[in-house]
Amino acid sequence: MGPKKASVSGISGEKRKKVMLSLELKQETIEKHERGVHASDLTKQYGRNMTMILTIIKQKVAIKVVKQSKGITIISKHCSPTLEEMERLLLMWIEDKEFAGDMITEMIICENASAIYCDLKAAVSGGDAGESSTDPTTEEFKVSSGWFKKFKQRTGIHSVVQHGEASSSDTKAVNEFVKQFEKILH
């Protein structure tokens, strides 16, 4: 038997971590390249490998088109404009609910996401649900726990969503109790 091969990261048994660049960083990289900075200089500047920089440059059209919604800082693939708009509107709805002090759960958010997507899809297709598109970015949206988990990661809403007992608690009563308790202590 021959010698064992070293792993990709150089340390046996350790996996290489996938590095995601922020949308802002990708757009900055593209702008610098368009101003004449060479890809090799960008690799040194950002500490990334040549393949990653060249992939960003190759995908510059798709990256430029993406409108950064509040809270969304990372794109891992280009998704349909309808899906992007749905997530932007959903995030605005969540922020409104949070500002109003309403409790929202994963189930409520997912139901609303599905409803917003269906409304947007109907508006885009002119109400013709049977219309098929040749655009590869138009995918059918399916609400799932995986989508919800990634949506939370992209938007940073992890502290908004409450489940089970936490979502049914009376926050007004809790806040009143805290105020009364503070008065007693002081």
Total helical segments: 9
Number of strands: 0
Largest sheet, strands/sense/barrel: none
Beta percentage is under 5%
pLDDT averaged over residues:
74
Stretches where pLDDT is under 50 for at least 5 consecutive residues are 6-10, 129-138
Structural class: mainly alpha
The termini sit apart by 76 Å
What is Rg?
A: 23 Å
Query: Percent range for helical residues?
Result: 55-70%
- Molecular shape: extended
Secondary-structure element sequence? HHHHHHHHH
Counting structural domains, the number is 2
Topology diagram in text:
Blueprint: H1 23-34, H2 39-46, H3 50-58, H4 60-65, H5 81-100, H6 106-124, H7 145-155, H8 164-168, H9 171-185
Architecture overview:
With 186 residues, the chain is an all-alpha fold. It has two domains: 23-65; 81-185, no CATH class. It is built from nine helices and no strands. Helix 2 packs across helix 3. The chain is extended, with a radius of gyration of 23 Å. Residues 6-10 and 129-138 have low confidence and may be disordered.
